[in-house]
Structures are given as C-alpha cells and as structure tokens.
Design brief:
The protein has 362 residues and is mainly alpha-helical. It is 41% helix and 2% strand. It folds into two domains: 18-77 and 229-269 and 304-353, Cytochrome c-like domain (Cytochrome Bc1 Complex, Chain D, domain 2, Orthogonal Bundle), CATH 1.10.760; 83-223, Cytochrome Bc1 Complex, Chain D, domain 2 (Orthogonal Bundle), CATH 1.10.760. Helix 2 packs across helix 11 (244-256) and helix 11 crosses helix 14. Bound molecules: heme C (HEC) (2 copies). One heme C is lined by residues 109, 111, 113-115, 130, 132, 138, 140, 142-143, 145, 148, 151, 154-156, 163, 166-167, 170-171, 176-177, 218.
Length: 362
C-alpha cells in the first residue's frame, strides 16, 4: 500500500504452499549437486540416498530455525495496536502536519526534516545528533519513525509511552522546532486556511483545530508507517527465501541471547536496559534519570528496535558509533550468553539486513 507519497508498504501475506517449496528445493538440490555426486557414485541407489540426506539436512535446518524464529521473535503484524480507527482522512491530516515547515519557529523545519520517509529514506536523518530549526545541536541520535507505532517505550530515556502523548513535544522542544507554546502551534494551524477541510474530513463530528485532534491525526499517520521485510516473509512460511548465511546469522542471533533484550517481533522498542560499563555510557547523558531524578534510573536507556537497523547508522543514543560491526562488537559488553567471534558478527549483520524494509536503502 502506498501511503501519502511515501513508499512504505504494508506487508503482503506471502504464505507459499509447502508442496511447491518441497519440489523447488528438490529441483535446486538436484541442479547444484547431481553432477558432483554422479562422478563419485555410480551406484544409483547410493546417489539418491545422498541427495535425500543433503536435502533433508538443508530443509530441516531452515525449518527448525523458522519455528524458533516464530516462537522467539514472531512476524510484524500488518498494523500497530490502536490503529483500528485510523481512517484515511486522519492519516492524510497527520501527513500534512508531519511535513509542514510553517509549524517551526522560523518556518524551515518539519518532522520530516529529521524523520525523512520519502523514496528510499528509512525514517531518520543519518546524523550523529540532529540540529534544531535554528541550527542548535541536539543531544541524541534520531530514531527511525518506521514501525514507531509498535513501540511502547518512546524516546531514548523512555519518557513517553504513546504517540498521542508524544505528538506535541517536538513542536515546542527548544532543540527541535522551537515554538514558544502549544497555543502558538494551534494558532499557526488555525491561521492556515488549507487545514480546515482536512479537519472536517478527519473529525466530521468535531472538526475543531485543537491539540487533541492534532495528537490523534499525527499518531494515526505514524501508525501507518509499517515496514515490509524479508525476515517476515521467512517467518510467515517462505522457507526458501533465506540463504545459508542468513540462516546461520539468525541461528547465532537466537543462540547468543540478543533476544534477551531485543525481544518480540519488533526486536526491541518495549523496554529499557542499564548501561553498566563505563565503556558503554556517555557521561553527558544520564538516560531515564534525567526525567525521574531517581538514582536507580541512572544510565537506563531504551533498547532500540533492530528493524531497519542496517539503514539507520550512526548508532546508539548519542550516535557515537558509525560502523554496524563495531556496534555489535560492543554488545559483547552487554549480557550475552557468550562472546562473539568476528566471523559471527559478519553473519549477524547478514541476518540483520533481512529485518530491513525491502523498499528502503541507505
Ligand atoms: C530536529 C530533529 C527532529 C525533529 C524536527 C523531529 N524529531 Fe522526532 N526525534 C528526534 C530525536 C533526536 C529523537 C530522540 C530524542 C530523545 O530520545 O530524547 C526523536 C524521537 C522521536 C520519536 C520517538 C521514537 C522512538 O522510537 O523512541 C517520535 C515518535 C518522533 N520523534 C516523532 C516526531 C514528530 C511527530 C515530529 C514532528 C512533530 C518530530 N519527531 C520532529 C529528532 C527530531
Ligand atoms: C543486555 C541487553 C542487550 C543485549 C543482550 C543486546 N543488546 Fe543490543 N542494545 C541494547 C541497548 C540498551 C542498546 C542501546 C545502547 C545505547 O544507546 O547506548 C542496544 C543497541 C544495539 C544496536 C544499535 C541500535 C541503534 O539503533 O542504535 C544494535 C545494532 C544492537 N544493539 C544489536 C544487538 C545484537 C546483534 C545483540 C546480540 C549479539 C544485542 N544487541 C544484544 C541492549 C542489549
């Protein structure tokens, strides 16, 4: 589905009939192996026997992993919780607000400036930390807006739990769009005559231009940004879609305990975790402590979703690491079941690519 000029598509259900897969794999195994086997084994029975072993080894590795991935990760639903009442009209209004530079203090910045979604852009600006509308330097790395509707923890310090509550923050944040107040925001929208028909369509029984309706429509729009990945195709039943390296990367991911923190179908996004080693944390950012003042919350940060992670460098709350390989090397300092070898990190990266939207690149 094409949403408001962005190419983010809703997931197609790609269940492939198991019998078709069976014959395809058989054909594939024959093409790749028959001739070799024929050289060494003239006895036809033994030849068939070896092909069967090879075939069942391959298919059982893939199908075992498919089952484990289904149980331990799962596939992304077509739409986030709470999207039942997201009409096209609300999404259209949210889209207009998301792109409106007039809603920043000096009229040059919109949500889409830092969260670009058009074409192949993956929902974040690729900056270490972004600059606000007057060029003021931000403190934290921009998370992708893709799949944001599935997050129950928002912001790196987890200070919001819903898109509805979060929606107005960036407009009045002094390091972002820098409006002086919520009422200035509403005034700006009221002064633009092009908005009234959008509000009438989105909220026919109560078309007021107020904070409540702005929150509802921005949240509806954000919930429509759902990505579509090869990993979901695999988990939903397409056993053939992963190559050997992708399967091995997934196997390592499940084995070493990445899912202890990057859990659920979003692979993160729903919990915080304490950065305990001085090597990991940034002394200028205390995480959740900055919101609560509770010393137990010092260095508590959001565990980010790993969906689209191969498209959203640089990494971590402060954008301090550019390479994905180094980022994963750092996870060795977190609570893994065992240390990762360099070759395993390469395979993990191959697997992480399957979690990215098929229509996006970086
Ligand atoms: C100047 C760049 C900038 C602009 C403009 C901006 N954002 Fe963000 N956005 C960020 C940064 C940086 C963060 C992380 C801040 C933090 O964690 O403290 C963020 C976080 C978010 C999050 C939480 C994501 C998550 O996974 O935790 C949402 C949702 C969001 N922004 C939506 C919006 C909307 C809606 C607008 C427009 C009203 C907007 N942003 C404008 C930079 C920006
Ligand atoms: C103990 C919990 C924990 C475990 C286990 C864990 N992570 Fe993380 N991961 C985090 C936290 C917390 C962050 C954010 C840290 C920060 O911002 O400073 C993170 C960040 C990341 C990032 C950067 C994401 C971004 O958008 O910036 C990647 C990639 C990543 N982890 C991959 C992995 C992989 C692969 C594994 C398994 C080898 C793993 N993690 C295991 C907690 C964990």
């Amino acid at each position: 589905m094409v949403i408001m000029g962005s190419t983010v598509t809703k997931k197609a259900n790609t269940k492939v009939n198991f019998l078709i897969q069976f014959y395809l794999i058989l054909t594939f195994v024959c093409i790749s192996n028959c001739q070799d086997f024929r050289v060494y084994y003239n006895d036809n029975n033994q030849f068939q026997y070896l092909i069967s072993i090879q075939f069942f080894n391959d298919i059982s590795f893939a199908s075992d992993l498919q089952q484990r991935a289904k149980n331990q990760i799962g596939s992304l639903p077509n739409s986030p919780p709470g999207s039942e009442d997201d009409t096209d009209a609300k999404i259209k209004l949210g889209n207009k607000l998301f792109r409106d530079i007039n809603l920043s203090a000096n009229q040059i910045q919109a949500c889409v400036t830092c969260h670009p979604i058009d074409g192949r852009s993956a929902g974040m600006d690729r900056q270490t930390t972004p600059r606000g509308t007057f060029g003021q330097l931000g403190k934290r790395n921009t998370p992708t807006i893709l799949n944001v509707g599935f997050n129950s923890v928002l912001f790196w310090d987890g200070r919001r739990n819903s898109l509805y509550d979060q929606a107005i923050d960036p407009f009045i944040n002094p390091i972002e769009m820098s409006l002086s107040s919520e009422s200035e925001l509403i005034q700006k929208i009221q002064n633009d005559p092009s908005y009234s028909e959008y509000f009438v369509r989105a909220f026919p029984s109560n078309p007021n231009i107020n904070l409540h309706n702005v929150r509802l429509s921005l949240a509806s729009f954000e919930r429509s940004l759902v990505s579509n990945s090869k990993f979901d195709d695999f988990v939903m039943g397409n056993l053939l879609i992963f190559n050997r390296q992708e399967l091995e990367g997934l196997n390592i991911f499940l084995e070493v305990g990445c899912t202890n923190c990057h859990s659920g179908y979003l692979l993160g996004g729903n919990n915080l975790s304490k950065l305990e080693s001085s090597f990991l944390y940034n002394p200028n950012d205390f995480g959740k402590f900055e919101v609560t003042g509770d010393s137990n919350d010092r260095y508590l940060f959001k565990i980010p979703s790993l969906r689209n992670v191969t498209l959203t460098q640089p990494y971590f709350h402060d954008g301090s690491v550019t390479s994905l390989k180094e980022t994963i090397e750092r996870m060795n300092e977190y609570k893994l079941n065992r240390r990762l070898a360099s070759s395993e990190i390469d395979l993990l990266i191959v697997f992480l690519k399957t979690l990215s939207d098929k229509t996006k690149s970086n």
